[in-house]
Amino acid sequence: MEPIYLDNASTTPTAPEVLAAMKPYFTDTFGNASSVHAFGRESKEAVEEAREKVADLIGADEPREIIFTSGGTEADNLAIKGIAMQNREQGKHIITSAIEHHAVLHPCEYLEEYHGFEVTSIPVDEEGLVNPLDVAEAVRDDTVLISIMLANNEVGTIQPIAEIGKIAQQKGICFHTDAVQAVGSIPVDVNELNVDLLSLSGHKFNAPKGIGALYIRKGTRIVPFMHGGAQERGKRASTENVPSIVGMGKAAEIVKNELKEKQEKLTRLRDKLIEGIEERIDEVQLNGHRNKRLPNNVNISIRYIEGESLLLNLDLKGIAASSGSACTSGSLDPSHVLLAMGISHEIAHGSLRLTLGKYNTEAEVEHVLDVLPKIVEKLRAMSPIYNQKEA
Ligand SMILES: *Cc1c(COP(=O)(O)O)cnc(C)c1O
């Protein structure tokens, strides 16, 4: 069997149609989008067409509300630092949640450490949900920004962003959402969500890595942090990455057209995985909300087993997954997301994340449901705690 890729929350393959759309912009149409000659104008047109497609995908009123960046991380940084700097005379208080991606948490920490900001972190319940009332209560006279993610990258929980946006609107506070995991998986509309800023990233929906965008609602003022040329209406200097921007536009167009179908298919595969695992393996726990959940996310803790050994064994069988302990960062600390949900260290260490993408099939899911229980059985047989419990 071909290797099975179930780590689509980390990244997705670039779609062949996307690559094909990009190709001419490396060679034939290589002009600098800021140049006035025909080469430049052609690139500029391609960039603007892509901007329209991205704007269209997220329901923005105007393409000019889209600023292309180098990815989701840069979009988050631009939103948070840019709004903080813009409004620092009005106040230095930011509200965010305990389960944000590091691309949001670390810019907030930076603002605290170097610019005298104060950050309030809203806790989540055991399913990973933020309560909008907690956000309302945390608002102060000096609050200048609220940043809460639309969908979590580890457990897939979808937050009540529209409700939080209402609160932000009523209080006149800028509201940013990191929608990197949500865009391309569920419908995302900036007006329905009541957001002023929204981050997205190409490589999470079958565009290449290294390209992203920040939606900035018309009228929202922001201080840029990439200084140089006047590209992206002065909000993000540097020669436009034309091929990648074209790729992201193409991916946005494709996913907009296939979203309903994709969502239905992934939900079906997701539920087959969850139910199959719960049927075949005892003492498992689904992490995150059962329904308010991304259609492609399965996050499950399997007791008496280390997520790391599970990953390695799955990898040996050609199945690529991810775990809830951040071994990639060189530490074995369990994820801040699982801990914020009140999950014990032990359970968090046994967590496994399987994230689906547009190319996964029913047969692959069935194969995983065949292989995974055998690996669990083998690992539990070697586990002293499991054997103690059995004895
Ligand atoms: C992947 C991801 C990011 C970072 O995006 P990059 O394009 O890889 O920089 C930010 N936030 C969330 C929720 C993500 O899943």
Characterization of the model:
The chain is an alpha/beta fold. The chain folds into two domains: 4-10 and 258-390, Aspartate Aminotransferase, domain 1 (Alpha-Beta Complex), CATH 3.90.1150.10; 16-254, Aspartate Aminotransferase, domain 2. 41% of the residues lie in helices and 14% in strands. The chain contains twelve helices and 13 strands. The chain has helices at residues 16-22, 38-57, 72-86, 102-115, 132-138, 161-171, 242-280, 307-316, 336-340, 345-349, 362-381, 384-390; strands at residues 4-5, 66-69, 93-97, 118-122, 143-147, 174-178, 197-201, 212-216, 284-286, 297-302, 319-320, 322-323, 351-355. Strands 2-8-7-6-5-3-4 form a seven-stranded mixed β-sheet, sandwiched between helices. It has a four-stranded antiparallel β-sheet with strand order 9-10-13-12. Helix 7 (242-280) packs across helix 11 and helix 8 (307-316) crosses helix 11. It is globular. The protein starts with a strand and ends with a helix. The mean pLDDT is 96. Residues 71-73, 76, 101, 103, 149, 153, 178, 180-181, 201, 203-204, 212 line the site of pyridoxal-5'-phosphate.
